[in-house]
Amino acid sequence: MRRSLAFLALSLVWTSFASAQDWARARLDKSPRHQEWVTVKHGGRSVQCFVVYPEVKDKAPAVLLIHEIFGATDWARDAADQVAAAGYIAIEPDLVSGLAPNGGGTSDFSGQSAVIKAVSALPPDQVTADLDAAADYIEAQPSCNGHLAVAGFCWGGGQSFRFATHRADLKAAFVFYGPPPAQGLEQIGCPVYGFYAGNDARISSTVPATVARMKAAGKPYEHVIYDGAGHGFMRAGEDPAGTPANKEAHDAGWEKLLAVLKGI
Question: What pLDDT, in 10s, does the model give residues 111-156?
């Protein structure tokens, strides 16, 4: 009985979270752009990646997107579609590919808490290898001009920062409310752009030390903290029920992202 009630509770939480992103799914379903799931393999591992191509005449740069701790949700995939709408090839690997029951990914877990647990437990080396495989795949596509940037959100923001310490050919790294890596800043070879929320002390309080560390390492780092916004404002700012501060932060962050991408 208790197990049944617990399962029901988890199902309701997952259903509630999924329903909260119906607006993202509806927008994604209406997109005119070519979207596809591809399987990228490295070693003995297979990673499902969501790819969206822009409707452009010439070869385009690519953006590797790293999802939140909630996995490859409807909003995460819609973010990839928005990047493609702006003229860039977008690829977003589902980093919990193969870890759900029956070898599934994000959508195959029993609930949100199960996804969070799986994402939180991912080995850093595996994450790096998955991201490398996705980056290699998209750079090899005929429509890619060979330029690559990385952008991550929440948990993915921290991974974006960490990936910049590893991947030498990145043109830019965008860190949306994610913590800095504990080491390796001196190995970063591209500008890093940080986007943080004023009402998110857990993450924003790390910014002064990050500024100092990046300066000491001689690495370019620009950051902004949006007053009144909360953690996750890029998603919450698109939610019809989002607060004005989150919407303003989202719009400003998106504008900055696109401005930088135009220069890569």
Answer: 999 999 999 999 999 999 999 999 999 999 999 999 999 999 999 9
Q: Give the DSSP letter string of 66-118.
A: E--TT-S-HHHHHHHHHHHHTT-EEEEE-TTTT-SGGG--GGGSSSHHHHHHH
The residues, ordered by sequence, that sit 6+ positions from 88 with a Cβ below 8 Å of its Cβ are 54, 60, 61, 62, 63, 261
Angle between helices 22-29 and 74-85 (to 10 degrees): 40
* Residues with Cβ within 8 Å of residue 123, at least 6 apart in sequence: none
Helix, strand, coil percentages for the chain (3-state, nearest 5): 45, 25, 30
Q: Is the pTM of this model over 0.90?
A: yes
Q: In this structure, are strands 34-42 and 45-53 parallel, antiparallel, or unpaired?
A: antiparallel
Contacts of 108 by beta carbon, 8 Å cutoff, 6+ apart:
100, 101, 102
Amino acid identity of residue 106, one-letter, is T
